[in-house]
């Protein structure tokens, strides 16, 4: 009788462990908040100081800081303070600024690594949203992590999907940024 109790207890524990190990159907995550912005970037080229919103601050040895490096711009670091609008018109009233940098970090493809904060101060929202991640620019859509925020976005986390809305060589590009927050406080 004494040997049966530990065996029964062992079997019971194993059955419980097995029932927990069987994957259950997870409910797909639903965003708690969605937003869409347009990010406008005008690169300084030596002649457009009044209109430029970004500038090359580091480049490969011997490179010009007013022109992106050849071979996929590898090694260039660009700092920006770009307007954020609700529509794709550069001349629309900005609802905030995107402030940060991107680094062209791949020798064999157009890829940049972004780290920036969207600073919003509008009648709709007030606060910041922080983003970071790789941007393989030749893909139609790219996802970056939303790592946090302040104000209306305190402790928010989610995904920001970049879609290139227009691209005019090395002078100007516009991104449509669709943000889906999955953690909202």
End-to-end gap: 56 Å
Looking at CATH, which topology would you report? AOC barrel-like
Question: What's the helical proportion of residues?
Answer: under 10%
For the largest beta-sheet, the strand count, sense and barrel status come to: 8 strands, antiparallel, barrel
| Beta strand count | 9
Q: How confident is the prediction overall: mean pLDDT?
A: 86
Report the total helices. 1
Plain-language structure description:
The protein is mainly beta and 185 residues long. 10% of the residues lie in helices and 49% in strands. It has one domain: Allene oxide cyclase-like (AOC barrel-like). The protein has one helix and nine strands. Strands 1-3-4-5-6-7-8-9 form an eight-stranded antiparallel barrel. The radius of gyration is 24 Å and the shape is elongated. 25% of the residues are buried.
Provide a compact summary of the structure.
With 185 residues, this protein is mainly beta. It has one helix and nine strands.
């Amino acid at each position: 009788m004494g040997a049966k109790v530990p065996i029964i207890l062992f079997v019971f524990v194993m059955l419980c462990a097995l029932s927990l190990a069987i994957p259950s159907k997870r409910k797909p995550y639903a965003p708690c908040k969605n937003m869409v912005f347009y990010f406008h970037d005008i690169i300084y080229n030596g002649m457009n100081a009044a209109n430029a919103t970004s500038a090359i601050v580091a480049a490969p040895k011997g490179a010009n800081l007013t022109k992106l490096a050849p071979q996929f711009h590898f090694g260039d670091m660009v700092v920006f303070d770009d307007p954020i609008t609700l529509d794709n018109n550069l001349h629309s009233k900005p609802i905030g600024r995107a402030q940060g940098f991107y680094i062209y970090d791949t020798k064999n493809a157009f890829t940049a690594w972004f780290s920036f904060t969207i600073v919003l101060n509008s009648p709709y929202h007030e606060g910041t949203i922080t983003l970071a991640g790789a941007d393989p620019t030749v893909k139609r859509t790219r996802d970056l992590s939303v790592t946090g925020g302040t104000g209306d976005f305190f402790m928010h986390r989610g995904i920001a999907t970049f879609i290139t809305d227009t691209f005019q060589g090395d002078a100007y590009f516009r991104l449509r940024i669709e943000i889906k927050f999955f953690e909202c406080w």
